Structure formats: structure tokens, C-alpha cells
Amino acid sequence: MDPVILFFLFGFVAGLLGSDLKLPSTLYDSLSIFLLLAIGLKGGQGLATQPLLPLLPQIVAVVVLGVLLTLLAYAGLRTLFHFDRPNAAAMASHYGSVSVATFAVAAAWLASRGLDVEPQLAVLLAVMEIPAILVGIVLARGISRDTDWRSLGHEAFLGKGVTLLLGGMAIGWAGGPQGLQPIRGLYFDLFKPVLGLFLMEMGLIVSRQVGELRRRGFTLVLFGLGMPLVSACLGIGTGLLLGLSPGGVTMLATLAASASYIAVPAAMRIAVPEANPAISLAGSLGVTFPFNILLGIPLYHWMASQWMKS
Amino acid sequence: MGMHTEKRTLLTVFTEASIEQVLIRDMDRLGIRGYTISDARGKGSRGVRDASWDESRNIRIEVICDRPQAEMLLGHLQTRYYSNYAMVAFFTDVEVLRPDKF
């Protein structure tokens, strides 16, 4: 098993046992800044060696995918799971958006198997964070006059995640592979060790969701496992449509299957205050995140290669 | 010879860090001239808020102003935020030097 996954499991078990292990929150913040920048830089330096225009249809395609996933999750939560409107909208928004940590684990997983991923997947990662937030807000509140779109737009487009990804990408693109040579050691070579440390804290955070999961019973587990499988199929379909490589298709499937736990909860807390944040987080963090990094990524890769063969 | 002080009201608010920016905008709009915000941890009716990561971070907001303004701000918080957010707020009487500041 990949050592970064072992770090995650270690944090998870330590949390379950009630250890007082905890990364200082400033370190956790620093590590997430590092990971976002590293992902952006890597994508940006790849983009420097290719034309940018072909990116446009791909961006449009993943925006449509993000909207579709959010609507699908909302419909499922309302009809199959009988969620009320605000909670269904907030939760759907989490599942229509993406998780950077899951992307990072998939990147490490694919790299260790020598599978290349198109550099624009980092762009698609940043783009896919956004539409689900806006769709979720509209689903919860309708389009009303008193929605503060300015501050919500600010939250959606200038959140920490999107800013760092795009900033890293711009630096990587401007510098190119040659220009980035002096900083490779930190951002590229240390990516995996830092990811391990980050995942240890993620394991601790996930272990705290177990109580909420116990209270909510099977609903969250069922949705948290079912939704990513459906999303991954749509992600694979989109990847094939865009003519991505096997690594790229796997990555897009993983992105589609992943659920946000940073950008979306922050935006939903402000935009849809009636929704209980504990429910969405228990689903996205407690079920979907561990499922994706432990079983989902290899499964999506297998599904993608089966589809590509036929 | 005593110091010359005047009475003001200190409004203390404990709430979720996720709405910090929104509250700052509210206070600016309501004409609050100064406030102090610090990180906080604790436990209440919405469970343990231990600041272990973004979603469980709390803040403490302290505002010193005259009584009517403090009541107006708390009234606003009560109607807008009490029902959906972890929030505890209370008044304390304080004595300040330089009353023109508050």
C-alpha cells in the first residue's frame, strides 16, 4: 500500500483511539497552501509547452459536468433520501464540487504507476470547484433579490483554493519547465512526503466524523458511496468524449467522484445557513473521501481502462 | 484624585469563524467604529468547537460602544444569526478612558 495512504490510516486510527495527536492548525494551513501551489505549478509548467486554445471546450465540458452532478445529487437526495431543501442543496453542492486532497492522492497514485496525466487537469480542478457552489445556492434559495451575489461570487472565485491553484498555474506557465528548475526540489520532489503529513491530519479529521455517521445511520453511508460511483461514470464519459489519456480519464473520474470539504462548506455556511454543516461534512469527509482514496481511485482506473478497451 | 472614566458597554460575541467576514461587513455597515476579533475554542449546544480545522473554528468579537449602539448590534445579530449559527453574546458594563473613542 502507498505510504501516503498509510499516513491517512495512521491518523484515522489514532483519532479513533482518542489520541491527542493533532497538527498545529497553522501547519495544516501551510501544508494545504503548499499542496495547492504544487498542483498549480505542475499543471502550469505542462501548459507552457502546449497551445491554450484547445482548453476552452474542455473547460466548458467540466462546467457542464459540475452543474449536472450537483443537479443529480440534489434530485437523488430529495427523492430517494427525503432530505429537506436546504440540506439537499448544500450536500449536492459538496458532491458537485471537487476535493483537492483526493486529486493529490490520485496524482501520486497515477505517478507511481508511470501513468501520465494531461497538465490541464489542474485547470479543470480549479474550474470544477466553482459551478456547484452557485448551483447549490440557487437550488436552496431560488434566485432572489436579497442574495448577496457579490460576496458569494467573491467566496466562490477568490477562495483560497482557487486563488492558489490559479496563482501556481500562472507562475508555472510563465516560468516553464526550465524556469521552475530551481524550485523543483521543494514543490515536486517533496510533494509526496508533504501529502503524507497532510493526510495524517485528514485521518484525524475523518475520525471525528464517525460520531455524526453513527447518528445519521445508513443514509449518509449509502449516498456517500453511491454518489461517487455514479459521478465517476459521468466523469469517465466526459473524459472519453474529450479524448483524454487513460491517466487523464482516471483523474477526471476521480474529480467527478470527489466531494468538496473546504471551499463548499465555507460558502454554504454563509449562503445556506439553515443547512446543517455536520451532515454534508460527515458524508463528504467521513464516507466519500476515505472511499475514494482507498478504493475509488484504483476502481475508477480499472473502469476507465475497461471502457477504453471496448 | 481619581482617574476620569466613563461608562460604556462591552458587547462580547462568541461565534463561528466561518461568518467572520460577513459580521465585519455588518459592523461596518452599522457604523461600529472599532472591534477586536480573536480565535477561540469551546463547547456549547452545537458541540465541541475545537478549532482543529476550518469548520470547527470559533471567534470572539469584542465591541466597546455606547449602550444604544450595542443593543442595536446585538438585536441585528439576534435576528440574522441566532437561529442558524453557533452564537453566544452578552453585555458587560465597562469603564473607559478617552470616551470620545467609543
What is the fold's blueprint, element by element?
The complex is a heterodimer of chains A (310) and B (102).
Chain A: H1 3-16, H2 25-47, H3 55-79, H4 85-96, H5 100-112, H6 121-129, H7 131-141, H8 149-157, H9 160-179, H10 184-189, H11 191-207, H12 210-216, H13 218-241, H14 246-257, H15 263-271, H16 277-309
Helix pairs in contact in A: 1-11, 2-9, 2-11, 3-4, 3-6, 3-7, 3-13, 4-7, 4-16, 5-14, 5-16, 6-9, 6-14, 7-15, 12-16, 13-14, 13-16, 14-16
Chain B: E1 6-16, H1 20-29, E2 36-40, E3 42-44, E4 47-49, E5 58-65, H2 67-81, E6 87-96
Antiparallel strand pairs in B: 1-5, 1-6, 2-5, 3-4
Structural class of chain A: mainly alpha
Distance between the termini of chain A: 29 Å
Q: Shape of chain B, please? A: globular
Can you tell me the residue ranges of chain A where pLDDT is under 50 for at least 5 consecutive residues?
A: none
Query: How would you write the strand order of the largest sheet of chain B?
Result: 2-5-1-6
Helix-strand pattern of chain B: EHEEEEHE
Helix content of chain A: over 70%
Residue-averaged pLDDT of chain B = 90
Domain count of chain B: the total is: 1
The CATH architecture category of chain B equals 2-Layer Sandwich
What is the class of chain B in the CATH system? Answer: Alpha Beta
Number of strands of chain B: 6
Radius of gyration of chain B: 15 Å
Domain count of chain A: the total is: 1
Number of alpha- plus pi-helical segments of chain B: 2
What's the total helix number of chain A? 16
What is the CATH level 1 assignment of chain A?
Mainly Alpha
Order of helices and strands of chain A: HHHHHHHHHHHHHHHH
The CATH architecture of chain A can be named as Up-down Bundle
